[in-house]
Amino acid sequence: MRIIILAFFSFFVITSNVFSDQIPSKYQGYWSGKSCKFSIEQYALFVGTNGYIYEDDSQVEFNFVFPKNIEGWTAFQTNDNEPQFNYFYRIDKDQLVERYPPENWDRNDYSFLKNQQTQDTIYYKCESNDPLIESKYGELLSLLNSSVIQSCRNPEQDKCLQDLFRFLDVNKDKRLHRAELNRGLRSLTLVSVLLGQNANDDLDKTTTFGVYIAIVPFLPLITQTLMANIDYDGSNSLSINEISQDRKDLFSAILLAKDGVIEDIRSLPGILQNFAPLLQGLDNFN
Ligand SMILES: [Ca+2]
Ligand SMILES: [Ca+2]
Fold first, then answer.
1. How far is the CA of 96 from the centre of ligand 1 (A)?
2. Full-prediction pTM beyond 0.85?
């Protein structure tokens, strides 16, 4: 299990070295047009403690961000390598104002925050998540709101494991059952697919979801491997003690399963191979 945690959280480490602060609570929640119905407004923004999901009729965007105060605005900065995601927010009369820099911005001149050069987007605060968005991203929304991202800045910390366990343990019985492991893998896969599309302008949201939906059937294979190798007391569930143990044979078993999955993916359409880097991340912990 720890190997899986490390593999997944290596994304966060790569994406950003330090999550210095949480996003201020005034920005957190679900935002859209006035009706708050995605079917009408065709755009929605969910802001969590450490990141956001934006969706409109043609694209979906997900990022972990560092909030930074600049001239009365809060910049949602990703990392230096992704200058295309630079949004600035402030709250004005209970509405969320989103501004982006002018084209070819030099990243130093903040005068556009005072003198508007681009069209602002205005969002209204919604009482609850749109059911459509909730059904698609529910697991991801709860991940964004959990303490996992903060505490797993350093995946070696015990708190990372404990918080991840709590996030995965949906029914709070201190045991991870297959369905809970599958759910966790699903949300982490969705994270990796969404982050993966940031580097690829050609992917629209239909393709992104195509990749995700095609990957999902493979996830029980990983769960099965985990169960077969670390359910020491045969309870058909994993306790925190069981997943805390590092064992060489577990590593090799997972790597074996990974090779099998990659082999299966290779026989599928090319786009599915986007999943391979996620599994190849496991190699770092060989
Ligand atoms: Ca449970
Ligand atoms: Ca067990």
1. 37
2. no
